[in-house]
Design goal:
- By secondary structure, the protein is an alpha/beta fold.
- The chain has 2 domains: about 210 residues, FAD/NAD(P)-binding domain (3-Layer(bba) Sandwich); about 210 residues, Alpha-Beta Complex (Polyamine Oxidase, Chain A, domain 2).
- Helix content is about 35%, strand content about 20%.
- The protein contains 16 helices and 19 strands.
- Strands 1, 2, 9, 10, 11, 12, 13 and 19 form an 8-stranded mixed β-sheet that branches. A 7-stranded mixed β-sheet has the order 7-6-15-16-17-14-18. The protein has a two-stranded antiparallel sheet with strand order 3-4.
- The longest helix is centred in the last third of the chain and has 28 residues.
């Protein structure tokens, strides 16, 4: 594909000031920030679509646009909100009225005002367990968790070990297992306790992370989440985004960086890699990456994740006095939410199935999965749930350039030794993607922050070079 017209200020040997690898929300945010500062950019993307881990199908399902990937706006996600509204997008609250539900050891429990009945035997310990997790998260923090006082100790054990050592009630252990499965797409046996404590801290604590009416799951964009990237593409010029251009090699020298896709190549003064560490590990670097970054990429998996969506003629669950929010610790292990927007013509229930629950889910046939999911909905909401107008599941492990979802996690021994490499640039190579954000990794907010931070660092460097050259 022939590169688009390049700004006159770019050196003749370069195709752009900056090449961004990845057209998701993080790479797009970086591109807009650079473009707004007068820097020329190109985005290269392995997929045939713009959006990355935000994947909206505007006409992909009856009832209205559907998000197969990231979609949530938190009430403190100020960078995302500012960016989206500046592009003309509008938000709608996600939370619905009514009781939340929990399915614990076969019993459907109602939680009015988001609170389980405190007289249930396991509930006092469950509430105390969330406070304990918050205290652990506060002790680690989100800026430099690898430097926290007990980093080595916490990074030597899994979350599963902590759960087993700390809590007595089986119900409490199951609830914590589903939380890790849901938010990281990993099983507690997979995840370092240091990483989980950091993740809770950088998402502002358990109440915010789990919130379905405020906190992390506060709102959506009308029309779908990928519109942020689409509108940025329109703003900077769609001809500057090269799709089906997977990067397999990056070569850095004293004057710039060359990126390769097979026999094709492009050159820039700087590169932003807006991908997860695991996805970045598909690229061969010359010179080789420092050990810390190379180890981080090789040893930090992506979560394994299904997003399941069922649409119905009406939101019958709301008429029953329930919100559609459900946490199931039994056979399916799903975190469920009402995903209906005011402009939709069908009502939607959205389920997230990750980690060990994903493993069990993926071992079933497509029909078995659908039957099990609908059986849970019937058990929880009644017989009207048995016949959806539309049913769809997205397996994020099948997305070649994402390598999983929703976010990176770290097994024991990785964060304490190599965590700092998440954010540190390597010469002219800068890292974005939601994982590189100081806060809200795993959410669109983290992607936007990481992209904007990478752009700001590059602008500062380019402007300093220009000033220096002007003095010579």
């Amino acid at each position: 594909m022939t590169p688009p017209h390049i700004h006159d200020s770019v050196a003749p040997e370069s195709d752009a000031d900056v090449i961004i690898i990845g057209a998701g929300i993080s790479g797009s945010a970086a591109a807009k920030a650079l473009h707004d500062q007068g820097k020329s950019v190109l985005i290269v993307e392995g997929n045939d679509r713009i959006g990355g881990r935000t994947w909206t199908e505007p006409e992909g399902a009856p009832g209205g646009p559907i998000d197969n990937g990231g979609m949530f706006i938190g009430d403190t996600h100020k960078h995302l909100i500012e960016l989206g509204t500046s592009l003309g997008l509008e938000m709608t609250p996600s939370g619905k009225p009514g009781d939340d539900l929990y399915v614990v050891q076969g019993e459907v429990l109602r939680a009015p005002n988001e609170q389980l009945d405190p007289s249930l035997p396991f509930v006092p310990e469950y509430l105390a367990s969330l406070e304990a997790l918050d205290e652990l998260a506060d002790s680690v923090g989100w800026e430099h968790p690898w430097d926290s006082a007990h980093a080595a100790e916490l990074d030597s054990k899994t979350v599963a070990t902590w759960i087993a050592e700390t809590f007595e009630h089986e119900e409490v252990r199951r609830l914590h297992t589903v939380l890790v499965n849901t938010f990281l797409g990993a099983d507690p046996y997979d995840v370092s306790l240091l990483y989980w404590a950091y993740y809770v801290s950088e998402c502002e604590g358990t109440k915010c992370l789990m919130g379905t009416r405020d906190g992390a799951q506060w709102a959506w964009w009308f029309g779908g989440a990928a519109q942020v990237s689409w509108r940025i593409a329109d703003a900077i010029g769609r001809e500057k985004i090269l799709l089906e251009w997977p990067v397999d090699r990056v070569e850095q020298d004293d004057s710039g960086v060359t990126v390769f896709s097979g026999q094709r190549s492009l050159r820039a003064r700087h590169v932003v890699i807006a991908m997860s560490p695991l996805a970045s590990n598909q690229i061969r670097f010359t010179p080789a990456l420092p050990t810390s970054r190379a180890q981080l990429q090789a040893r930090s998996p992506m979560g394994r994740y299904y997003k399941v969506q069922a649409r119905y003629p009406s939101a019958f669950w709301v008429k029953q006095g329930t919100s559609g929010a459900l946490l199931d610790t039994d056979d399916v292990g799903v975190f469920l939410l009402d995903g209906t927007k005011p402009t939709d013509t069908l009502a939607t229930l959205i389920g997230f199935i990750g980690g060990s629950n994903y493993d069990r889910w993926a071992g079933r046939t497509e029909q078995e999965r659908k039957s099990a999911f609908l059986d849970l909905l019937v058990k929880s909401f009644g017989p009207q749930a048995a016949e959806p107008s539309y049913f769809h599941e997205t397996d994020w492990t099948e997305q070649e350039w994402a390598k999983g979802g929703p976010v990176t996690y770290m097994p024991p021994g990785v964060m304490s030794h190599f965590g700092a490499a998440l954010r540190d640039p390597i010469g002219r190579i800068h890292f974005a993607g939601t994982e590189a954000s100081l806060q809200w990794s795993g959410y669109m907010e983290g992607g936007v922050r990481a992209g904007q931070n990478a752009a700001a660092a590059i602008v500062e460097t380019l402007d300093a070079t220009t000033r220096k050259e002007a003095l010579l």
